[in-house]
Design goal:
Layout (H helix, E strand, L loop, with lengths): L1 H8 L3 H12 L5 H7 L8 E7 L5 H14 L4 E7 L8 H4 L4 H5 L3 E7 L4 H17 L4 E7 L3 H5 L6 E6 L5 H7 L2 H4 L2 E4 L7 H13 L9 E3 L8 H17 L2 H27 L2 H15 L5 H12 L3 H4 L2
Parallel strand pairs: 1-4, 1-5, 2-3, 2-4, 5-6, 6-7
Helix pairs in contact: 1-2, 2-7
The structure holds guanosine-5'-diphosphate and magnesium ion (MG).
């Protein structure tokens, strides 16, 4: 395993792919992998790319890869597709010119969500960390912005790009899905189609109504025709540079790390309790005593919390 980590750090793509598979399968080796990587976490800027299905995220990611490579920067891509476990490499591959995928400066990994939001986030974050340790300049994380579970992975993004396209009710949908909250910048894609101008105006109008934060930039792109992508990237680089310059990034990453640790431990506890017959027995017993008017619900809860401190999960490390 250490050997695998060393090979990955030396630039061996197959070693990286193997490590990612171990992480995806929640192999017992995973803690050792990350222990070995402790001193070399990577230096990538993580760009989350989200938006409704069909907005052109994958196509745009392809274009961004081309632009970044043209500038000599290396790229890792994590494409999280909750709907199709079969899309695999085709998710990006069918829209990218082959030289991009043969390029050693590009590493693309697709993953399916398996319908478990918490699990999705856990794996994807480990995979992003592995890509980072591989030594990329950029990590692009494509995820469908339809639900909380999918958006959770954006917790790990340094900068988030929301991709929208002209179509009925897109602004409203985006609002409902919480995309306005997560976006550091917005791309109105399919600028070659009718309605792109009014969507851009609509977004800017909506942003102006908000007083709690500065309006995020909105750029028009046509990923298909490769227009506006350079300008979009300029904006992404501007955000990256600003955050790196004022030291926000370190504090932001530490806060994210704390949130992630808490979530991981919460999930771990929930899993352990769900599988613990003693705990289930205790719950049922206390529920019965509340029903029998022997104790009240708050007393039962206090007892559960007291016992929680004594469970195996709390003392094991
Ligand atoms: N007209 C037009 N179509 C686009 C553009 N970008 C992507 N598409 C098309 O929109 C469809 C969905 O694109 P895709 O990148 O898979 O969207 P995703 O689901 O957001 O990843 C595909 O048929 C693309 O060829 C664009 O700028 N203009
Ligand atoms: Mg896609």
């Amino acid at each position: 395993m250490e050997n695998l980590v060393e090979r990955m750090q030396a630039g061996d793509r197959r070693a990286l792919a193997r490590l990612m598979t171990l992480a995806e399968n929640e192999s017992p080796e995973v803690p050792r992998i990350f222990a070995a990587l402790r001193r070399a976490p990577g230096r990538a800027h993580r760009l989350g790319v989200t938006g409704p299905p069909g907005a052109g995220k994958s196509t745009l990611v392809g274009r961004l890869i081309e632009a970044l490579r043209a500038a000599g920067e290396t790229v890792g891509v994590l494409a999280v597709d909750p709907s199709s476990p079969l899309s695999g490499g085709a998710l990006l591959g069918d829209r990218l010119r082959m030289p991009v995928l043969d390029d050693p400066g590009v590493f693309v990994r697709s993953m399916a969500s398996r319908g478990t939001p918490g699990g999705l986030a856990r794996h994807s974050l480990d995979l992003a960390d592995l890509l980072d340790a591989f030594g990329r300049d950029w990590i692009l994380i494509e995820t469908v912005g339809t639900g909380q579970g999918e958006l959770e992975i954006l917790n790990e993004a340094d900068t988030t790009l929301v991709v929208l396209h002209p179509g009925t009710g897109d602004t409203v949908q985006a609002l409902k899905a919480g995309l306005f909250e997560v976006g550091d910048l917005f791309a109105v894609n399919k600028a070659d189609q009718i309605g792109a101008d009014s969507l851009k105006a609509e977004l800017e109008w909506a942003f102006r109504l908000r007083e709690d934060r500065a309006a995020p930039p909105v750029r028009m792109t046509s990923a298909r025709e490769n227009r506006g992508v350079g300008e979009l990237l300029v904006e992404v680089r501007r955000i990256r540079a600003a955050r790196e310059a004022d030291g926000q990034l370190g504090a932001q990453r530490q806060a994210r790390l704390a949130r992630r640790l808490r979530r991981e431990v919460e999930l771990e506890f929930a899993d352990r309790l769900a599988g613990d017959p003693d705990w289930t027995g205790l719950l049922e017993n206390l529920a019965r005593r509340v029903m029998d008017l022997e104790i009240d619900r708050y007393a039962a809860r206090a007892e559960l919390i007291r016992r929680l401190g004594k469970t195996k999960g709390a003392t094991e490390a």
